[in-house]
Each structure stands twice: as C-alpha cells, then as structure tokens.
C-alpha cells in the first residue's frame, strides 16, 4: 500500500517531517527507518543520511553499540553504516551522484 502523501501534508501544517524507525529483526541491520517530508517539496528522503544525525545516537544508546548498520526502507532503498566517535558521527556507504555542478564566486 502506497502512503497518501497529500493526506499527510493536509493533516498538519507545522511540522517538517515524519520519521518511522524500528529495531531490525534481520541480522544484516541494526535498525530500519523511513523519513517522509512532503512539506519540504519531496515526498520522502531518498537515502541522504540526514536523519542519522539523531537516529545514530538514539539506536546506539538503545543497542549499546557505537557502530550500527542502518537500512532505509524507502522507495529508493539504501543502507549505511554509522559510527559514533566522541563528538563526531561517521557515515559509511555507497553513493550515487544525482546532481553535479560548479559554484563560481
């Protein structure tokens, strides 16, 4: 069943996104997640790693681990490894270039 993003947008106009996450029952991953953000002009985060800034800490505390494997169960699925090091978050994974350009100052 495909989410009704229009209904989601109409339901509340004062939030940036909706995140759903759960511990994985698959031995290849520690947790799964999806992030919907139609208020920003895109229905769903296409595996950017942006939500890892808070998800990594949350799951690290829950699972008592510093290095975790995350799976984004979105339309364009993806996975990454996240690692907490003191005040840093390291994100490892494969990337696909979807936009390229030059800035001129």
Report on this structure.
The chain is an alpha+beta fold and 105 residues long. The protein has one domain: Diaminopimelate Epimerase, Chain A, domain 1 (Roll). The protein has helices spanning 5-11, 52-63; strands at 18-23, 31-36, 67-72, 78-85, 88-92. The radius of gyration is 15 Å and the shape is globular. It has 2 helices and 5 strands. β4 (78-85) and β5 form a beta hairpin. It has a 5-stranded mixed beta sheet with strand order 1-2-3-4-5, covered by helices on one side. The mean pLDDT is 85.
In short:
By secondary structure, the protein is an alpha+beta fold. It has helices at residues 5-11, 52-63, and strands at 18-23, 31-36, 67-72, 78-85, 88-92.
Widest beta sheet: strand line-up = 1-2-3-4-5
CATH class placement? Alpha Beta
- What is the arithmetic mean of pLDDT? 85
The domain count comes to: 1
Structural class: alpha+beta
Number of strands: 5
- The name of the CATH superfamily reads Diaminopimelate Epimerase, Chain A, domain 1
Count of alpha/pi helices: 2
Task: Write the CATH architecture name.
Answer: Roll
Low-confidence stretches: none
C-alpha-based Rg, rounded:
15 Å
Topology:
Elements: H1 5-11, E1 18-23, E2 31-36, H2 52-63, E3 67-72, E4 78-85, E5 88-92
Parallel strand pairs: 2-3
Antiparallel strand pairs: 1-2, 3-4, 4-5
Question: What tags apply to this protein structure?
Answer:
5-stranded mixed sheet, 18% helix, 105 residues, Diaminopimelate Epimerase, Chain A, domain 1, 30% strand, alpha+beta
């Amino acid at each position: 069943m495909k989410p009704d993003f229009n209904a989601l947008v109409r339901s509340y106009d004062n939030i940036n996104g909706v995140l759903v996450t759960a511990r994985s029952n698959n031995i290849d991953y520690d947790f799964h997640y999806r992030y919907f953000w139609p208020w920003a002009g895109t229905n769903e985060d296409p595996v950017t790693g942006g939500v890892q800034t808070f998800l990594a800490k949350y799951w690290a505390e829950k699972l008592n681990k510093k290095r975790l494997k995350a799976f984004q169960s979105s339309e364009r699925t993806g996975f990454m490894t996240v690692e907490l090091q003191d005040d840093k978050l390291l994100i490892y994974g494969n990337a696909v270039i979807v936009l390229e350009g030059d800035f001129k100052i």
